[in-house]
Amino acid sequence: MKRGDPRGVILAAGISSRMKSPPIDARLDPELVKQAEERTKGMISVGEGGRPFLDYLLSNMKQAGIDDVVIIVGEKDEVLRGYYGLKDRDNPFHGLRISYAIQRIPEGRKKPLGTSDALMQALLVRPDWKGGDFIVCNSDNLYSVRVFTMLLDCDAPNSLIDYDRSGLEFAETRIAQFGITKKDKDGYLLEIVEKPPLEELERLRSADGSLRVSMNIFRLNYDMIFNPLRDCPESPVRHEKELVTAVTAMVKLHPRTLKALPLKEHVPDLTYKDDIAVTSEYLRKHYSTLDW
Q1: Quick check: helix, strand or coil at residue 4?
Q2: Which of 55, 96, 124, 188 is most exposed by smallest CB count within 10 Å?
Q3: pLDDT tens across 193-212, in order?
Q4: How far is the C-alpha of 242 from the C-alpha of 281, rounded, in Å?
Q5: Residues near 39 by Cβ (< 8 Å), separated by ≥ 6?
Q6: How do residues 44-72 score in pLDDT, each as one tens digit?
Q7: Global pTM exceeds 0.90
Q8: Are 52 and 42 within 8 A, CB to CB?
């Protein structure tokens, strides 16, 4: 069985209005509040000695065998590139090669065009990836080494981690915002249903009775996802081109090519300012030292 290609794409160009909302906990370090206002979320210094969150994600990717990483950044980003290297391509970082794709904000808009457009920018700067695959994920979630390994070892052309909702240590109101995966009897993805009404949840339960969600981490075949990304329409609600929409379009074009891999574990998340203290404590407990 051929293992997946050791390539990763990290979505780090988004502008999060939720992170910019005031924290509930007024005791939060003012410097971290300032960083949350000004930086992409992955560069908030939540780790030991001020280490950015993104370091931990990159370390897990490296431990799973990924060494070629494209980080999608905003056109005005200085902090991330100043930390990981100023070259457009192949900055050396603890055995990784870090490259960048820039997601610009179109004229007349205040925010980028969304996650589908972001991934498209990465593929455009890496035509050498054609014919192969890569893993794409958020910059504000800490996916485990196990997750990256599962994706790399899957024998389907495409795959996603199918998280059991009951294993996610979030408030129910937050979990309700996650898209529910809908699969066929063999576990191949049919679609990701965003924010389904309560009456539809029972119908979306997996064969084992669990409700399973996507946390926006996929292994994707470059050639299969390229056209769905290029042709992705804007969401009528968020007015962005969303990766979920492109992935759903891809599995309609290429049925039974994306395997949903079931897993029950928590995923640390940096969405709101109040997640900063929780994430810092998680890292102190589980990543006392970062062994590169």
Answers
A1: coil
A2: 124
A3: 988 877 788 888 888 888 99
A4: 31
A5: 79, 80
A6: 999 999 999 999 999 999 999 999 999 99
A7: yes
A8: yes
How many structural domains does the chain have? 1
- Lowest mean pLDDT, pick from 14-23, 138-147, 190-199: 14-23
Question: From CA 127, how far away is CA 222, in angstroms rounded?
Answer: 9
How deeply is 118 buried, as exposed, middle or buried, from its count of CB atoms within 10 A (0-12, 13-18, 19+)?
buried
Which one, of 71, 81, 132, lies nearest residue 103 by Cα? 71
CATH number at residue 184: 3.90.550.10
Q: How far apart are CA 147 and CA 265, in angstroms?
A: 10
Q: Which amino acid is at 137?
A: C
Q: State which of 120-129, 188-197, 265-274 shows the largest mean pLDDT.
A: 120-129
User: Is the CA virtual torsion 169, 174, 176, 182 positive or negative?
Assistant: negative
Spatial CB neighbours of 124, under 8 Å, sequence gap ≥ 6: 101
Asked whether residue 121 is assigned to any structural domain, the reply reads yes
Residue 65, amino acid: G
Please give the Cα distance from 15 to 235 (Å, whole number): 17
Express each pLDDT in 166-175 by its tens digit. Answer: 999 988 888 8
How far apart CA 27 and CA 77 sit, in angstroms, is 28
Residue 291 lies in a domain: no
Residue 112 belongs to some domain of the structure? yes
